[in-house]
Structures are given as C-alpha cells and as structure tokens.
C-alpha cells in the first residue's frame, strides 16, 4: 500500500505571512484553492490512499469531496506532529511506502507525485524533495514508513539529508518544479502567477492585482524605515 498524507491546520488562520497583501477572506480562499489543486493532482497519481490530517471542518469537507480519507486531529499540534501521527498509522497498517507533502503546493502534478513515490521502490529508501529555496522539505517518501523521523521547518531539507545518512541510508534527492513552490510569502504569489498555469489558485490570484499590491506594500515599508 502506498499512502500519502497532507497535513492541513485550518483555513481561517491560513497564510499569516500574506497579511500585508491579502485580507483574511482572500487568504482563506487561497488556502482552500491550493488544497483543491493539490488534491486534484493526487487524484491522478498512482496512490492507494490519500490522507488529509486536519481538525478543520472546512478542510474535512474539501477532502471528502475529493475522495480523500480524513484523519481527524484532536488538537492542532503543528505540521511535524500531524505528519508523525500519519506516519505511525501507516506503519501500523502495513503500508509499503509512506509519503507526505504540504497542502500549499498548487503547481504539483500527478507525474511529480508518481516520481516521488516511485523513487521509494525498494526498502530501505528515503526520498526527499526540496522547496524552491532549497531550505525546506516539500516532499518525502519513505520505505518503510518509519524509516526516518521527520521534523519540518527550515532548514529541514539539509537536516533530513543528514539524518538519513546517519541511519546509513543515502537519500534520493529530487527537484520537482511544481512541488517546490509552496506559497507562503508575497513573492510566492508572483511566482504562482508566472508558473501556475490553469490552476484554481493562479486563476484566483490573477484577479487580485497582486503585483500592484506588492509594489505598494514595499513602498510603504520603505517610507516607514526612513
């Protein structure tokens, strides 16, 4: 069994670093659109199960509409804890491969998911895909599922590489363009517009005049620093 988990905290408080550019409802709408894009890509990949780890009813509804299994958290303990819980469940249920990606990588493709999972064929295997900056870890595939303790937050990519080698496993490192773009900062919105194609997220952001908002925010920041 090949299982992929997507941890999602909530939509209401999503994307705090975009507050200078986007209103609360816009951030909520963007988080929902990105999750829909991710789930659409996963639906086309060669997976046996997609788990969305959350305690948000809105996220639960989105996941169920996409045919994903909802793993309900009792409390929001953060990205690392959510992945660890899913990882432990995958091990208990005898999964051959466990993978995880975040819910804010709207340019993800089914082919990239298949590449991530496929690279984990043959245990032991540790597959890591970096964020666009090279500091974060946007994709992991493990065989067996408990093959590496995961801890997210920059510089998690280098930390995961070192941890894999400390276990005596040379990790397989992938560069996947769509998976690498996690939308957290204002500049990421510009990248999404450039690279997002026909994704729901890019279409949504295209209507918000983001580049003008970004220029205005920078102008105000420069003026306040004088």
Q: What's the Cα radius of gyration?
A: 18 Å
Strand order of the largest sheet: 3-2-1-4-6-5-7
The named CATH superfamily: Spore Coat Polysaccharide Biosynthesis Protein SpsA, Chain A
Measured by DSSP, the beta-strand proportion falls in 15-25%
The name of the CATH topology is Spore Coat Polysaccharide Biosynthesis Protein SpsA, Chain A
Oligomer: single chain
Shape label: globular
CATH architecture call: Alpha-Beta Complex
The succession of helices and strands, N to C, reads EHEHEHEHEEHEHHHH
Provide the low-confidence segments as ranges. none
Largest sheet: 7 strands, mixed
Number of strands: 7
- Tally of structural domains: 1
**Class in CATH?**
Alpha Beta
Number of H- or I-type helical stretches: 9
Structural class by helix and strand composition: alpha/beta
Approximate helicity band: 40-55%
Q: Report, as a whole number of angstroms, the end-to-end distance.
A: 58 Å
Q: What value does the average pLDDT take? A: 93
